[in-house]
Amino acid sequence: MLLWRKVCAVVLPLYALIGSAVSFYRVAYRVTITPMIVEATLQTNAEEAMGVLSPQLFLWVFLNLIIAIAFCFWRWRMDFPFSKAPLHAITAIALFAALYWGNDRLHRSANQRYPFNVVVSTADYIHLRNLMQAERTMPQYNTASVPDTLDIVLVIGESMRADHLSINGYERPTTPRLEKRNNLISLPHIYSEHTHTAASVPHILTRADSTNHASTYEETSFISIFKQEGFRTAWLSNQDLGEAFAPFIGECDTMVFANSGKTVFVFSEWTDGQLLPIVAQMQEERHSKNLYIIHTIGSHWYYNNHVPQEFQKFQPITSNRVVTSNTAEQVVNSYDNTALYLDFFLDSLISLFSDRNALIVYQSDHGESLGEDNHWLHAGGAEETKYPAAMIWYSDRYAQENAEKVDALKSNAFRHYRTDYIFHSILHAANLEAAEKGADVFEK
Ligand SMILES: [Zn+2]
Q1: What pTM value is reported for the model?
Q2: How far is the CA of 366 from the centre of ligand 1 (A)?
Q3: CATH number 3.40.50.1220 given to 141-434
Q4: CA 299 / ligand 1 centre spacing (Å)
């Protein structure tokens, strides 16, 4: 930048302008540049934009610009005999490139930081936009008669295993609220063949099953079918706009990211409770038919960060982000606190739908290792990560109108299903049916 004064005069003020704005939001709002922030910036309207502009921001950017411009003047007047500028430039770029691409950790870390995060996130966003808009075929389906009013909610959980919920017999009281709920059926024997989010979520949303993985990305998910049948479809997420989910998010009418500026490098409070006001607000709009896909952060490591203080009941909790630097007891305590918070989250969500013709399906994407054979977290394919928690709640009105389905659900509660059951069950819940039948908890 500094080798040529003309380059400096153009690039340095621009660098200062964008950098000061990015740093302001990093400090004031604790958000960083991610593809979702790029999306939000591009899609934002004047009113929303005014909400995040402030005199402090302008002052900070102005100060930075003044310094950058003063520096450019100084550089302009300075007469360096830089006949070797090209050589210096090539050496600098080569050194940087060697470090950047030669060291994986540095590479990943640099991509999260200014100015690289601006370039990387914009490129990611363009790639994800293309994925969202990619053409796929919709699976064939039949419809009996879709109700005039119906809300279907699929809550995709994160890393919650069935055997750490007291509703399934776990000795610690991790689900006190849900146990008191009528109309709530836990499905304790669900098997997930995938043990990481990116593979598991598409499997849950599409017709893909253990014999046919291909349809994950060749066909649309059930979201498109609901949309075709007049449902307002919304993706409300507390995770990122990942490559694996982008095609399905693209099927929805609306997408909202509750924590769009959080990454593994930048996060403070990042809890699923932050999704509740978004759902409440959308319900106030009183659409007759809604399909919500709620992608939670759930029990994702670092557990404590996703649980508000008042739910940190089981103590002592973890104190180190390196999982093995904690005792097993600490890790399990922190994990169980995420279950207790899930209990609160689902219970609060149910309250928003009690007076509606509504069904809420909770399905965790996979389980979690909690020290079995010294395994921790998930994605390694360990057996204990294959038994995710699952629950279905229906409103009184739904039960009245769907007595047969509710009966079937009750009698199927202890059956063994793979996560494939979601696709067929959720369609059937709305009186829809895939042309090719599959596992369905609402069918006796
Ligand atoms: Zn996951």
Answers
A1: 0.83
A2: 6
A3: no
A4: 9
